[in-house]
Amino acid sequence: MEDLHTTKQKLVIEIEQLPNISIMELQNFVQYLKFKQAGMTALSSDIRELRPEDDPILRVCGFIDVPPFSETIDDTLYGAL
Q: Left if phi > 0, otherwise alpha if psi is -120 to 50, otherwise beta: which for 3?
């Protein structure tokens, strides 16, 4: 198995052979990978169990099931038929 240094050297050689537009694309991809890695690190340290009674979405579920919202929601969303 190749060591990391050899792999990096091969990658540099490959990058040097790319046209400029592909290098810009590669830079965007590298930035995406860094963003994704930072997000995964933050996410793994932030993961916690959300109890149903503390979930803000669950607190408002059913809110529009009562008048006057429930009577006009179809008209509001889809227009009067």
A: beta
